[in-house]
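Hi all, posting the design record for the shared folder.

TITLE: backbone redesign
STEP: 1 of 1
STRUCTURE INPUT:
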């Protein structure tokens, strides 16, 4: 198949899933054409069967704002025509599904059939899409997609109820490369961040409000009273400054290590003991899956699709949003009970391998592509 993939190229779960999916499809022999305004950050090398098409933004002086959605549509039309695409797969509904719909309509005029699949990832449905001005457009673009997938059962249900949509939505969970995200020796890095044998809490995110990163610092404050512990924060975003300030205010500046955006996640995850995900909204929680695949148990909130990933009392623990005391209690339990820790760590790895292995999930996308292409 020849597949066009559009995603946000930035540091974020939807772009990661789209890129890893594209690379996996290319490895299976499909031809993959990424269409975006910048090269997706995980597309960092040469890969056979993979092509990148940059959306050029028009800078005509009359336009105070760039016409990204239209430029994207034009690029989709160009790539469809000249690369003979079978299908477009867009990740994150806004504006990608709308651009794909528009491209489809343009092509229809010349009797060409462009089918497109939209994958819903999270805030496109639970936050941005709910803004009254966007809602009708999001609903429309989902209804008009030839196929729709959601990354959790939670997100599927939310889409159907929030937007009052009657449409088949296929749940295809996020996936992980279980060979790459594996348990490995990380002693040297661990010594660097926890030189006195402290325990290590981890968190990765894009530091947006919904991630409640500050909660991880408050959890550390409580945990530290019982167990010498460090907190490693990976990623960057709007909330980072506030978090740095909070760490200083709580006199934890030496115990909270801000690593910023990082590519070598596996080494870092392997140097940790417990992964914290205190999100206020989370449709799946890919970064928690990355940790689990490295055998790191998760303490998360109960929101969204997290309970479909993190099983309470098996791969980690689940607490309510903002319940710092409980999250700290759970973290302490894991950090002090070795037998329980080892069993949760094994369960986490096993769950990643049995349920979210790339080799199990990517074929589901391929099967879905075939279904959509064969449908009227
Ligand atoms: O929806 C977002 O906030 C953006 C998106 C991203 O690009 O980071 O994250 C979502 O998609 C990920 C991949 O499917 C999921 O693992 C995340 O849970 C989800 N984020 C939220 O729902 C907040």
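Okay, here is what came back for every position:
SEQUENCE:
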């Amino acid at each position: 198949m020849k597949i066009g993939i559009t995603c946000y190229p930035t540091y974020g779960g939807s772009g990661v899933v789209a890129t890893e999916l594209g690379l996996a499809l290319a490895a299976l022999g499909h031809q993959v054409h990424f269409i975006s305004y910048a090269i997706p950050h995980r597309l960092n090398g040469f890969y056979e069967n993979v092509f990148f098409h940059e959306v050029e933004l028009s800078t005509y002086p009359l336009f105070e704002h760039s016409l990204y959605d239209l430029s994207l549509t034009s690029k989709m039309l160009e790539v469809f025509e000249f690369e003979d695409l079978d299908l477009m797969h867009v990740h994150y509904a806004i504006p990608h599904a709308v651009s794909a719909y528009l491209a489809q309509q343009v092509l229809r005029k010349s009797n060409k059939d462009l089918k497109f699949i939209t994958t819903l990832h999270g805030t496109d449905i639970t936050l941005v899409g709910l803004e009254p001005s966007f809602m009708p457009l999001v609903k429309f673009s989902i209804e008009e997609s030839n196929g729709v997938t959601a990354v959790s059962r939670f997100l599927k249900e939310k889409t159907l109820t929030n937007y009052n949509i009657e449409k088949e939505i296929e749940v295809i969970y996020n996936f992980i490369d279980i060979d790459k995200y594996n348990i490995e020796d990380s002693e040297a890095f661990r010594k660097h961040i926890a030189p006195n044998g402290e325990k290590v809490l981890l968190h990765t995110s894009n530091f947006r409000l919904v991630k409640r990163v500050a909660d991880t610092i408050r959890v550390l404050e409580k945990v530290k009273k019982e167990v010498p512990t460090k907190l490693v924060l990976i990623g960057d975003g709007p909330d980072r400054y506030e978090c740095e300030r909070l760490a200083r205010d709580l006199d934890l500046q030496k115990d909270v290590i801000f690593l910023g955006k990082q590519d070598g996640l596996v080494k870092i995850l392997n140097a940790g003991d417990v992964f914290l995900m205190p999100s206020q909204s989370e449709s799946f929680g890919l970064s928690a899956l990355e940790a689990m695949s490295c055998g790191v148990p998760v303490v998360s909130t109960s929101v969204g699709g997290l309970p479909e990933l993190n099983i309470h009392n098996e791969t980690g623990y689940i607490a309510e949003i903002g319940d710092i005391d409980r999250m700290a209690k759970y973290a302490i339990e894991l950090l002090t009970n070795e037998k329980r820790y080892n069993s949760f760590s094994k369960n986490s790895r096993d769950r990643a391998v049995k349920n979210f292995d790339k080799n199990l999930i990517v074929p589901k996308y391929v099967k879905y592509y075939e279904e959509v292409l064969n449908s009227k």
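COMMENT: The mean pLDDT is 96.
Let me know if anyone wants the other runs.
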